[in-house]
């Protein structure tokens, strides 16, 4: 498996300009944090290959994303923390897990069947989460059905997955692929790895799956709907083909399409401020879900900040309705939910899809 890394790709590989701009934008804000507190924790429910499950989502604070320090992705408002070296100790990480378990205890009637752990980086990168901590976390959640762990493809490894499947936990690795098109991932998102690296990671997960006695392992791909510099119709086209390509890769069973929202201290924010970016229409999200409903994977979308100017939105009148249809689709995978929603603004969206060109975008706000 190839070994791309933020250090290798930062200099002299055509990404210097994006990184320089992103570093400058990010440096306008510095954050500090308490390493004993998770970044966020919440309860929800999620569609998985094993059905809809009650979930506990944990954003672990692991000292953060190295790629963000180099400059990082154009839409990601993750702010590099001001702690030198940026590593968080085993004890502090386990304290964070305890805080999450207390939150669950206080707010849920029963323990969640599904645990999702994100780090704004890679849970499987041992510089973020060491082997000792990884194994202790696997043991903590040994009684749960399923776990989702976020990682860049570089760090996906059958033995690390085995730490979880060995306890009988079905294990999914969440990879922020963003798009299956290398050119869009490199030039619009400023993310350094290739689709081939994603395919390698899927193959590792498929091997871990075959090696596990009584648990499954697989990949959940996260895609970014409408990165900057694409028109609405280009973004839709890119997303449809990305979902189809991901669903075709063995080992990838779920695709989560995330509509881009405008986060502060990002290049997307600069463009938005200068009338150069509009988040995707919710009609586009619905359209992509309809068009890809028959692929061989679960396809879901959870539009964050829907209905607001900085989030995916239509005309404001119909935003809640379309969002509700999308959430319905997530759980039931039935595209007919979209037949029941309509609004006058569909005509505007259709016109945008037809007429917007990258040299005159966005056509409306
Ligand atoms: S999207 Fe992920 S890889 Fe990119 S800068 Fe943000 S945290 Fe890092
Ligand atoms: Zn509308």
From TrEMBL:
Write out the GO MF terms. catalytic activity; iron-sulfur cluster binding
Elp3/MiaA/NifB-like radical SAM core domain: from which residue to which, for each copy? 55-291
Question: Which InterPro entries does UniProt cross-reference here?
Answer: Elp3/MiaA/NifB-like_rSAM, RaSEA
Q: Do you know which SMART domains this protein is assigned to?
A: Elp3
Official protein name in the record: Elongator protein 3/MiaB/NifB
Specify the species.
Haloterrigena salina JCM 13891
